[in-house]
Each structure stands twice: as structure tokens, then as C-alpha cells.
């Protein structure tokens, strides 16, 4: 095994030397060989499990400096040359379409970076490693009585990973996505420079990497603002048989940020989806709707579940109960089908972990996940719901939740690289089709068919409704240009500045690895 790793190290260093002959004086200038490992199967796999492309090596860096030496070497090819290997940052491996893979290149496993979480300035913020999981951030901050303001639904994702995309959950209407809740970053750029940046210090890099899909740098540290953590949360679920009433009440809730702390919702497609979505909700739900006699046709009845939460800072005589009663009285749910439960703050934020354990027990976690995540302007929400029902959900068996909830687009900083749709009234809806496929029932051709159907839905939603995809790998340069719209030229200019040799993020498929001026200008 040792001999094999030595051969591997020699081969990768030779690749780097070929591309950077005028820069590297010795292999030790590249990186510590201890950090270089033979690729494991996980380096060519992600949560989506629909793409698998192996790297030539894996790097487990001990510091940002290790990453800087690697990227500096790769990006220093002389005129007329191009790097022989690309680099992808991989955190917890929850990409959906191979975005964190580096075919024939090097995968940098950011979980190997220092993951310390330091609460500072009396709880005003926490400095956290880019490879730390959000659940680790939560646990450490709670020890001091604080917590970040904005979350993802699933906490076993890395800080650097979600900040490179967006990071959304039911708090986004109030505080914005996670990328709107960052004070400072440490980033290793595509040229190998370690930069501390913020809205006032190297702001162009700061905003570029937030939502930048790993194209401009690797996030190695983040400073996250904190708030006082409530000990408990009052969590409410209410059921609807009308999409209009369901979304109308969601919009009412997000108009009350002074009262409500979290708003989400999901489609209730059948009895199974009702049961599976209730795994983490620790209260009995006596809701037995009639889904109709047609188990898979277009005439099937669909219901909706709205959920909201209120932070509870008092142990007794809770003010949260009063708020829940006040707010619930304004809603138009199917009475009496509203259910409320008090849970610990940590348990509420970590609720998806129970759903994960349920799926694992049924063999439906480590399977292909052909997901579809779309942001739809408010005016197109009902139309997109109908499109989903016609094209995706009612065709054959469907396993997984379909989340639906509103975002307020003014909570997204337009300086970041993230993309949200134009929404004249400032409201856009998240539709997340979180599908799991049973390999015994849906093999490779079946998964490919689902992905193709999702592509058709996304294309039609873009053309008809002005929708934008989230967490997706676009199939072509033309699709990426459409995705970014007016922001495309800025995105390309940022790439030219911070990763001119196109070393980073090959799995996204946005840029080709070349230093040809002609090719760079054609991408603009």
C-alpha cells in the first residue's frame, strides 16, 4: 500500500511539474505528500448518486496553506499551456449531480481542515472552519447559549458547501439564506492566494464565492453572526385541501417576521407521504384525508401541510403559546386539523436526521436521488404545481417529500453569485422534489428518465414562468448563460480574475480548463 501511494504521489507531482515547470522548484513546493491519498470510492460518489467520475488523487489538507500550494502550482502554467488537472472541493458529499467531483483531477476533502468553532465578541459571531458541519456549529454555539440565524433543513452539510450554493430553510424569509448571514470569509482563490475577505475587505471576492458554486475559491473559514438561542420551539402543522389557501396563509405568515420564526410546507400526495413526513413531528396527527380512488391518475386528490414555528424563550407560561394561538386564528386551514408541539431547539433544527434514519432503515438513503429544486416567482407558483403534478408526481410510484414555501427575494444580496428569479412582488416559491429511488424498482434507465423529465419541467418553467433552478448542474453553456441571465458577464469576469486557468469546480461544467484567450472571450 505504501509503495502504491508513493507511485501515486510521484505521478501527480509529475503532472503538476509538467504544467508548472517555471514555478515548482521541488515536489515539497506543491503540498505535503502526507495529505495526498489514493482516491476512495466516495471521491467519485455523491448523495445524488447519478454521476460518478473518479479523480486521480484525493488531498486531505491540514490547513489553507496546503490548498494554496496545490492551487498555486496548478494555476501557474506558462503561456500556451494549461493545467493538467482540475480541483474540486468536497465537504460532506451531498452534491446531486457530480458537482464536487474532479474527473482525472484532485478532490480536496475539506472535512480534513481544522473544524474548530469559536464563539467570540460576547456571542456576536462565531468563527468556524469551512469543513465543519452545521450540526457541529450548532452544538458548539448552543454551549454558549447562541446559534446562527439562518439554516439548512439538513445539518450534516459543511459550512463551505452551503455557502458556495445558498443555504435555505424556513428561516430564509426572515433572515435571508445562509449566504446573506456571513460577516467574513477566508478563501483560497484559484490562483492559490489565501485571502481574508468581507463586504468591506476584498468585497469582490467575498461576494463572488457566496453562491459561487466553487468557481472562484475554496472557503476555509467563515465568520457567522449569531443570535440568542431559544431553549424550545413551538412547532405547528396545519392541513389544507386548497393550494390557494395554503400559499395564501404562508404569505400571511412571512409578512409577520416579528411573530413567526420559521415557515415551510409540503404537498401531501398519499397516505405514505403523510406518514413519512410525520416521522420527526412528535405529536399524534389525526388527519385521515380521502385521496380518491384513483391511486395514480390525474384525478387524485392532493392535500397540503403548512408548518411554522415560534421560538420559545420562557420555560413556563410561554408567550410562544399566545403567539401560536393568535397566528392560528388568522389561518384558513381545514379545521380542526392544526397540531402543535413543543420541542427542544436543537431537536427542531435537527428534525431531518430522524427522516434520514427512517430512510436508512428502509434502504432508501444510499440510493440515487434525482432531485429537482426550483425557485418560482409567486405569479407562477400555481402553474408550476400543476406542471409538477402532470409531468412528474402522478406518473407511477413517487417516494419522497415535495417541499413548497415562500422566499422574500429582497433578503438575497444581489452582489453574491447566487441566482433568484425576477419577482415583481418580491415573493418567490421554493419547490423541492426530494425523490428517492428504490434500485429494485428503478434502475439506471429509470433514473435517467426521471432526470430527463425534470430537465423538461425546468426548461418549461424557465420559459413560461421565469423560474430558476437551485443546486442543479446545467447541461450546456447555453443553459448556464440562461441561468445567470444578466449576471452572466459578471460571473465570467469573476472567473477570469480569481481562477483564470479554470482550475476549480470542474464538476459544475460551467468552464473548460484552458488559458486560451480566444476560448475565454468566447465564453463571454
TrEMBL record:
Its cofactor is FAD. Transmembrane segments: none annotated. Keywords: FAD, Flavoprotein, Oxidoreductase, Signal. Pfam families: Cytokin-bind, FAD_binding_4. PROSITE patterns: FAD_PCMH. GO terms for biological process: cytokinin metabolic process. Residues 51-229 form the FAD-binding PCMH-type domain. Residues 1-21 form the signal peptide. InterPro entries: Cytok_DH_C_sf, Cytokinin_DH_FAD/cytokin-bd, FAD-bd_PCMH, FAD-bd_PCMH-like_sf, FAD-bd_PCMH_sub1, FAD-bd_PCMH_sub2, FAD-linked_Oxase-like_C, FAD-linked_Oxidoreductases_BP. SUPFAM superfamilies: FAD-binding/transporter-associated domain-like, FAD-linked oxidases, C-terminal domain. GO terms for molecular function: cytokinin dehydrogenase activity; FAD binding. It is an enzyme of class 1 (oxidoreductase). Its EC number is 1.5.99.12. Coiled coil: none annotated. Monomer. Belongs to the oxygen-dependent FAD-linked oxidoreductase family. This is cytokinin dehydrogenase. It comes from Panicum miliaceum (Proso millet). The lineage of its organism: Eukaryota, Viridiplantae, Streptophyta, Embryophyta, Tracheophyta.
Amino acid at each position: 500500500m505504501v509503495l502504491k501511494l508513493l507511485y501515486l504521489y510521484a505521478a501527480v507531482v509529475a503532472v503538476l511539474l509538467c504544467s508548472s515547470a517555471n514555478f515548482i522548484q521541488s515536489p515539497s513546493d506543491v503540498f505535503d505528500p502526507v495529505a495526498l491519498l489514493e482516491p476512495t470510492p466516495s471521491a467519485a460518489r455523491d448523495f445524488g448518486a447519478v454521476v460518478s467520475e473518479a479523480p486521480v488523487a484525493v488531498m486531505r489538507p491540514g490547513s489553507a496553506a496546503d490548498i494554496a500550494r496545490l492551487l498555486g502550482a496548478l494555476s501557474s502554467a506558462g503561456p500556451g499551456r494549461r493545467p493538467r488537472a482540475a480541483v474540486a472541493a468536497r465537504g460532506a458529499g451531498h452534491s446531486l449531480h457530480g458537482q464536487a467531483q474532479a474527473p482525472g483531477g484532485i478532490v480536496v476533502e475539506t472535512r480534513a481542515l481544522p473544524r474548530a468553532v469559536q464563539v467570540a465578541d460576547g456571542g456576536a459571531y462565531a468563527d468556524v472552519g469551512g469543513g465543519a458541519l452545521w450540526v457541529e456549529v450548532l452544538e458548539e454555539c448552543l454551549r454558549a447559549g447562541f446559534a446562527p440565524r439562518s439554516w439548512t433543513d439538513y445539518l450534516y452539510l459543511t459550512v463551505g458547501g452551503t455557502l458556495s450554493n445558498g443555504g435555505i430553510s424556513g428561516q430564509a424569509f426572515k433572515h435571508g439564506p445562509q449566504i446573506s448571514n456571513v460577516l467574513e470569509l477566508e478563501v483560497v482563490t484559484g490562483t492559490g492566494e489565501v485571502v481574508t475577505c468581507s463586504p468591506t475587505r476584498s468585497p469582490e471576492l467575498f461576494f463572488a464565492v457566496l453562491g459561487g458554486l466553487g468557481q472562484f475559491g475554496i472557503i476555509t473559514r467563515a465568520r457567522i453572526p449569531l443570535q440568542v438561542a431559544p431553549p424550545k420551539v413551538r412547532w405547528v402543522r396545519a392541513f389544507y385541501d386548497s393550494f390557494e389557501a395554503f400559499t395564501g396563509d404562508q404569505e400571511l405568515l412571512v409578512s409577520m417576521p416579528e411573530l413567526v420564526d420559521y415557515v415551510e410546507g409540503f404537498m401531501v400526495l398519499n397516505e405514505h407521504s403523510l406518514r413519512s413526513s410525520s416521522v420527526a413531528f412528535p405529536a399524534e396527527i389525526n388527519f385521515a384525508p380521502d385521496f380518491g380512488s384513483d391511486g395514480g391518475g390525474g384525478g387524485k386528490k392532493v392535500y397540503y401541510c403548512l408548518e411554522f414555528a415560534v421560538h420559545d424563550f420562557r420555560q413556563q407560561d410561554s408567550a410562544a403559546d399566545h403567539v401560536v394561538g393568535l397566528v392560528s386564528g388568522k389561518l384558513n386551514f381545514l379545521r380542526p386539523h392544526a397540531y402543535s408541539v413543543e420541542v427542544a431547539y436543537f431537536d427542531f433544527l435537527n428534525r431531518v436526521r430522524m427522516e434520514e434514519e427512517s430512510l436508512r432503515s428502509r434502504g432508501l438513503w444510499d440510493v440515487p436521488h434525482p432531485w429537482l429544486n426550483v425557485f418560482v416567482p409567486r405569479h407562477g407558483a400555481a402553474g408550476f404545481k400543476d406542471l409538477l403534478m402532470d409531468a412528474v408526481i402522478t406518473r407511477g410510484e413517487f417516494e419522497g417529500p415535495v417541499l413548497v414555501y415562500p422566499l422574500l427575494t429582497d433578503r438575497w444580496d444581489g452582489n453574491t453569485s447566487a441566482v433568484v428569479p425576477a419577482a415583481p412582488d418580491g415573493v418567490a416559491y421554493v419547490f423541492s422534489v426530494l425523490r428517492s429511488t428504490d434500485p429494485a424498482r428503478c434502475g439506471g434507465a429509470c433514473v435517467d428518465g426521471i432526470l430527463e423529465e425534470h430537465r423538461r419541467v425546468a426548461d418549461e418553467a424557465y420559459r413560461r414562468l421565469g423560474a430558476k433552478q437551485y443546486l442543479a448542474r446545467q447541461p450546456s453553456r447555453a443553459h448556464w448563460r440562461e441561468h445567470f441571465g444578466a449576471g452572466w458577464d459578471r460571473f465570467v469576469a469573476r472567473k477570469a480574475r480569481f481562477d483564470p486557468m479554470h482550475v476549480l469546480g470542474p464538476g459544475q461544467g460551467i468552464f473548460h480548463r484552458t488559458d486560451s484567450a480566444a476560448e475565454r472571450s468566447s465564453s463571454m
